[in-house]
């Protein structure tokens, strides 16, 4: 009975926010649990049988201009995608964009900067393809970092954008021409965790 307790809590919360809520509220969740589930559901994408994953490398200069993204995906994300295979199909594309100017030029990003960092007007980001929602994973090579007062980030290099994707700031030497699979390990592992959150995957099995 305890195995699916988290799933049952999610269902109870969704029912309590629907038009059929009167009965559900009588079986109501605690305030803390409801707030936690509200936060999760507002972050998550709507369920779809197929999701399109778009991996983009943006740099503010001419380098790096190549990356071992396919090898990194196979090593650091494919095992998780295989586990999710019975529930979702995933399509993948990758791109490299040079001389990409972010929406915010400040070297230290605060909470307000994070919302406008994505330069949607100039960056060629994938729209949803054929009805399949797109999840964008952006690695930006530059010298910017996130200020420690930004509560919505997990570290000084990455943040998740609810119902959209996530961004990872990757510091590299200016002379670096290529991004190796090893250099992509931490960004891809972070993207994997963010993907689970965006899909609304239960955080525990108990």
UniProtKB/TrEMBL annotation:
Species the sequence originates in: Photinus pyralis
Alphabetic keyword roster: Endoplasmic reticulum, Glycoprotein, GPI-anchor biosynthesis, Membrane, Transmembrane, Transmembrane helix
Pathway annotation from the record: Glycolipid biosynthesis; glycosylphosphatidylinositol-anchor biosynthesis
Keyword Transmembrane helix (UniProt): yes
Protein's cellular compartments: Endoplasmic reticulum membrane
Official protein name in the record: GPI transamidase component PIG-S
Topology in the lipid bilayer: Multi-pass membrane protein
Family as reported in the entry's similarity comment: Belongs to the PIGS family.
PANTHER family in alphabetical order: GPI TRANSAMIDASE COMPONENT PIG-S
Any one GO BP annotation for this protein: attachment of GPI anchor to protein
Superkingdom, taxonomy of origin: Eukaryota
Chief localisation class: endoplasmic reticulum
Keyword Zinc-finger in record: no
Cellular component annotations (GO), alphabetically ordered: GPI-anchor transamidase complex
């Amino acid at each position: 009975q305890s195995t699916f307790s988290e799933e049952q809590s999610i269902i109870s919360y969704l029912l309590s926010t629907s038009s059929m809520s009167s009965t559900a509220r009588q079986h109501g969740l605690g305030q803390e649990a409801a707030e936690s589930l509200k936060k999760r559901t507002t972050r998550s994408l709507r369920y779809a049988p197929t999701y399109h994953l778009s991996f983009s490398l943006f740099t503010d200069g001419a380098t790096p201009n190549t990356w071992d993204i396919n090898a990194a995906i196979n090593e650091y994300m494919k095992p998780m995608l295989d586990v999710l295979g019975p529930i979702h199909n995933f399509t993948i594309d990758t791109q490299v964009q040079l001389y990409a100017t972010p929406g915010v030029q400040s070297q230290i990003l605060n909470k307000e900067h994070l919302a406008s960092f994505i330069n949607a007007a100039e960056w060629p980001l994938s729209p949803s393809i054929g009805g399949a929602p797109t999840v964008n994973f952006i690695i930006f090579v530059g010298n910017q970092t996130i200020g420690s007062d930004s509560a919505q980030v997990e570290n000084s290099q990455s943040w998740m954008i609810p119902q959209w994707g996530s961004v990872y700031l990757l510091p590299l030497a200016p002379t670096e021409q290529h991004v190796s699979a090893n250099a992509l390990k931490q960004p891809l592992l972070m993207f994997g965790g963010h993907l689970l959150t965006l899909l609304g995957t239960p955080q525990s099995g108990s």
